[in-house]
Amino acid sequence: MSNGPRNTTASLVKRALDFFRILGFISLIAWPLFAIAASIGHSSNEDTWGIDIGVFSSIDIDLEKISDDFRQSTGVRDPKIGGNAMLNIDTSSLSAFYIFVVLTEITGVVGLLILLKLRAVFAALAVGDNFAKDNASLVRHVGIVAILWALVSPPLQYFANRLILSEYALSVPGIDLAPAVEINGLAIFIGVSMLVLAGVLREATEIHESQQLTI
Questions:
Q1: How far is it, in rounded angstroms, from Cα 107 to Cα 141?
Q2: Which long-range contacts (CB under 8 A, 24 or more apart) does 89-93 make?
Q3: Residue 39 pLDDT
Q4: If you average pLDDT over residues 176-194, what whole number do you get?
Q5: Is residue 190 part of a domain?
Q6: How far from each other are the two terminal CA atoms of the chain, in whole angstroms?
Q7: What domain range includes position 143?
Q8: Is residue 179 in some structural domain?
Q9: Domain for residue 130, yes or no?
Q10: 22-46, pLDDT tens digit by residue?
Q11: How many domains does the chain have?
Q12: How far apart are CA 146 and CA 115, in angstroms?
């Protein structure tokens, strides 16, 4: 039941989410099909086949092992430098590619789930149903999914990237790669914010319902 006039802004957001919903479904279907096509290409062109995959990795570089002249570099006193970065690896390993495909697909499913929950909220707001009972529950679900994914994603990413990197033997003196872990603090903050917002929406809905009963 509509509790107010139609919301033009919410309608625009809903249309945008509708577009991304369709795009998300297409991507989730097309990505495995692309993986199958890539596998067929690997079997027919095994010597030249390769594809870029992203691997979040820690990079440790020992400049002393690379060159004795490292001290000539301006501002560098310690021969060892390092950091974390997303590396694009042109892989010829099917197993590494499959791991990357599965990890990407899982991430896409989680993202699409959050998108569908948000779309349902804006669909209610678009028709003026500002106090729909489901709104608080949907926002709460978004918060829970965001927090869970922020906690589950790092170990999942670590073990997946560990398997991917195990496919390679980097024979470059002074450069070492290892799987890295990064906790998404922003996702946790957004998740907690959604839980707080869900509580506010639930209270607002209860107040609105009590006011409706007293009229």
A1: 17
A2: 89/52, 89/53, 89/54, 89/55, 89/164, 89/168, 90/50, 90/51, 90/52, 91/50, 91/51, 91/52, 91/53, 91/164, 91/167, 92/42, 92/46, 92/49, 92/50, 93/167, 93/168
A3: 85
A4: 90
A5: yes
A6: 17
A7: 8-50+93-162+184-214
A8: no
A9: yes
A10: 999 999 999 999 989 888 887 777 7
A11: 1
A12: 11
Q: Which helix (H) or strand (E) holds 85?
A: strand 80-91
Tokens of 10: 């919410």
Q: Considering the domain boundaries, does residue 157 fall inside one? A: yes
- From 163, 184, 31, select the one nearest 89 (Cα to Cα): 163
Chain-centre distance for alpha carbon 70: 38
Contact, 80 vs 62, CB < 8 A? Answer: yes
Cβ neighbour number for residue 109 with a 10 Å cutoff: 11
Q: Whose CA is closest to 164, among 100, 107, 103?
A: 100
**Which residues, in sequence order, are CB contacts of 73 under 8 Å at separation 6+?**
63
Distance, C-alpha 53 to centroid of its chain: 15
